[in-house]
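Hi C.,

You asked whether I'd gotten around to modeling the 265-residue construct. I have! Everything is below, sequence then structure, no commentary in between.
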Amino acid sequence: MSVELNHRITGEGKPLILLHGLFGSLENLGGIARRLQDEWQIHALDERNHGSSPHTDTMDYPSMAEDVLAYMDAQGLDKASILGHSMGGKVAMQIALMAPERVEKVIVADIAPVSYKPRHDAILEGLRSLDLSAVRSRQDADKLLAEFVETPGVRQFLLKNLERVPSEEQTADSPMFRWRLNLPVIDACYENLAKAPEGDGPFNGPVLFLKGAESAYIQEKHRDQIMQLFPSAELRIIQDTGHWLHAEKADTFAALCRRFLENED
């Protein structure tokens, strides 16, 4: 069963749906939204169990794709282009394979339509181990999480999911925090999220894969699977970027998206 996704709509023009990655929210692609909203109507979504969208007991790509299709129905969008980063890129590909008639163009940021070995074990262990009853500030949480996640920028990204419990719900004299994301279900369903999108394919519409030059998520060995499912796919590599290419070189990323979306050939 689909859920009603939290969303933010900006700009005017043809619809472009933005889908964030694992542990993220619609804020993650905010810089890209601001760069493209002059020509497109941007629909930035929180996917299920993330951000301010509903928590559910299930999480897999078919159900997440159904959420987006239900959102399109609610907004009266017969067809839209979709841009997804990482997990969101897999959701975008799933939608294209499930409902190709609803998809204009697809932009997939630094992910391939393949199954991956677990890459987030340390992060999940750190988030599970964080004793929120002992956290009275984000600095407290950062120190505790540093035992599991070395990179400060990654910890900062993860801790955006930490929110202060409203005063009327507090049960202690000092500030209390909770997770916005549905950590238990994300943890339990992680194996589903590591899988490839499902579908016989192919999706014959235009697809742009954007790869961070220093990221290993899209590899040469993935080419055959990409072309089997998306025969019209093209690949662009953004130099000096890793998996967070949309944040590391936002202007370049947005320019490549703009060129692809504007091309009517």
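If it helps when you're writing up: The mean pLDDT is 94.

Thanks,
B.
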